[in-house]
Amino acid sequence: MGTVVVQAETSGAAALSNVTAESVGAAGVYNCPGSGTFHVELGEGNSGWDGTWPCGTWPTP
């Protein structure tokens, strides 16, 4: 079991399509960059994960 599907702690971007996740513990995305922002573009066909965990807190694995 994983805690999140995408963990972004940097600036940048990613486009994600047709990603299937199972046994996600907390949320789909943890996006807490040190500087700049990381943009996650969700395309079609994703399943099993959604939502964003708030920066500044850490989910329990």
Residue fraction in strands: 35-45%
Strand count, sense and barrel status of the largest sheet are: 3 strands, parallel
**How are the strands of the biggest sheet laid out side by side?**
1-3-5
Helical fraction equals under 10%
How would you state the average pLDDT, rounded?
85
Strand tally is 5
Helix/strand class: mainly beta
Order of helices and strands: EEEEE
What would you call the shape? flat
Number of helices: 0
- The end-to-end distance, rounded to whole angstroms, is 8 Å
Taking pLDDT < 50 over at least 5 consecutive residues as the criterion, the unreliable ranges are: none
> What would you report as the Rg, rounded to the nearest angstrom?
11 Å
How is the secondary structure organized here?
Layout lengths: L1 E7 L3 E5 L7 E8 L6 E5 L9 E2 L8
Parallel strand pairs: 1-3, 2-4, 3-5
Kindly list the characteristics that best describe this protein.
mainly beta; 3-stranded parallel β-sheet; 61 residues; two-stranded parallel sheet
